[in-house]
Amino acid sequence: MLIKKVKASNIRKIRHRNLRQGKPYSTTSYKRDEENNTFHLACILNKELISCATFYPENNKLFPNQKAYKLRGMATDDKYRKRGIGKKIMLRAFEEIKKKGGTLLWCNARLVAVDFYKKLGLKIIGEQFYIPEIGLHYLMYKKINI
User: Fold this and answer.
1) What is the DSSP string of 56-121?
2) Distance CA 89, CA 102 (A)
3) pLDDT for 49-107, tens place per residue?
4) Taking the domains of the chain in order of start, what are their residue ranges?
5) SS3 content of the chain, % helix, strand, coil (to 5)
6) 146 has pLDDT over 80
7) What is the pLDDT of residues 3-42, one digit of tens each?
């Protein structure tokens, strides 16, 4: 199993399978995918991409004076869930964010992912909110120790 940086085009299929089922493939391309400061991590097993996540700098008014990074599009194929793969991607992301001088990671977490993020030290801030066509979320965050 290998965790490595990849291009956005490499992870669009896994995003579609896990996050955008039934929606057009075009919804798997994110506005900030190709920016210089964006990085994408993927887990590759036997030459197959089985998990991914995207990270980019984005401040949030709830966290003033922080050099914040946002997590988007975290996905793991069903048959590989609950094996620690997502955790390995997140631990690698914490290292990368720290190297880049980031001080905080935040995300809009789907309800099904909240417990996963809590185990990694992320905390909920605020109330549940709805993202159209996706569902209920919580904003979650973790301070990155420099």
Assistant:
1) EE---TTSTT--EEEEEEEEE-GGGTTSSHHHHHHHHHHHHHHHTT--EEEEEEEGGGHHHHHHTT
2) 17
3) 999 999 999 999 999 999 999 999 999 999 999 999 999 999 999 999 999 999 999 99
4) 2-143
5) 30, 40, 30
6) no
7) 999 999 999 999 999 999 889 999 999 999 999 999 999 9
DSSP state at residue 32: T
And the tokens for 124?
A: 């909920």
Percent of the chain with pLDDT strictly greater than 90: 92
2-143: CATH architecture = 3-Layer(aba) Sandwich (3.40)
Q: How far is 122 from 103, CA to CA, in rounded Å?
A: 13
CB count in 10 Å sphere of residue 3: 17
